[in-house]
Amino acid sequence: MMLHKDVESVLLSQEKLEKIVKSLAKQIEKDYNDKEFMMVGLLKGSVAFMADLMKRVNLDFSIDFMVASSYGSGTESSGRVKIVSDLTLPVQGKDVLVVEDIIDSGNTLNFVMNYLMTKGANSVKVCTLCDKPSRRKVPLVPDYCGAEIPDEFIVGYGLDYAEKYRNLPYIGILKRSVYE
Ligand code: 5GP
Ligand code: MG
Ligand code: MG
C-alpha cells in the first residue's frame, strides 16, 4: 500500500491493529461477561478503534459517545478539558468502559473519568489503543492498552493532525516538517 506523503513511517500496520483489537476484545469479554456495561467512545479519535472493537466483543452492551476537548488543532495538550458534547444515555449504576485513541498527558481521561463517576457510574475503566506513558502529567494507568508507543506524534485510524489523516487505515508517525 502507498504511504501518505506526510507520514514518516508506519507504527502499527492494518494487520497489527487487527491483532491488537482481537486481543483487547477477548480480555473485555472475559471481564465484562457478567456486567451490565456501556462502551463510551471519546470522539472523534476513537471512532475507527471503537467500530472495530465493538464488533469483536460478543456480549450485550450499549454504546455512547462524548466529545471532550483539550488540544485545539496543535500537538500539545492545553490541560484545560471541557465537555463539548455529552452522553445521550444515563450512566447511573452502569459499568462504563471508556474507549480512547491515545493517552498522552492523561488530562482528558482524568477529567472524563471523574465526570462519569460524579454522574453515578458503578465503575469506570479505560481501554486505550495507544499509550505514551513517558508523557504523563497525572497518574493514570489504562485498564486495557493496545500498544505503548514512543514520544512521537502519530496519525491515522481515527487520529488526526488539524482534522486530517483520520481515514488512514494504519497508524503512522507524522513527519515533523508538517507541524514544525
Ligand atoms: P491527553 O489529554 O492525554 O494529553 O491527550 C489525549 C488526546 O490528545 C488524545 O485523545 C488525542 O486526541 C490527542 N493526542 C495525544 N497524543 C496524540 C498523538 O500522538 N497524535 C494525535 N493525533 N493525537 C494525539
Ligand atoms: Mg482522544
Ligand atoms: Mg486530535
UniProtKB/TrEMBL annotation:
Gene Ontology biological process: GMP salvage; guanine salvage; hypoxanthine metabolic process; IMP salvage; purine ribonucleoside salvage
Coiled-coil ranges per UniProt: none
Localization in the cell: Cytoplasm
Cofactor(s) recorded in Swiss-Prot or TrEMBL: Mg(2+)
Annotated ranges, domain Phosphoribosyltransferase: 11-161
Any one Gene Ontology molecular-function term assigned to this protein's record: guanine phosphoribosyltransferase activity
Highest taxon above the source species: Bacteria
EC number(s) stated in the UniProt entry for this protein: 2.4.2.8
Reactions performed catalytically: IMP + diphosphate = hypoxanthine + 5-phospho-alpha-D-ribose 1-diphosphate; GMP + diphosphate = guanine + 5-phospho-alpha-D-ribose 1-diphosphate
Pathways involved: Purine metabolism; GMP biosynthesis via salvage pathway; GMP from guanine: step 1/1; Purine metabolism; IMP biosynthesis via salvage pathway; IMP from hypoxanthine: step 1/1
UniProt similarity note: Belongs to the purine/pyrimidine phosphoribosyltransferase family.
Name of the protein in question: Hypoxanthine phosphoribosyltransferase
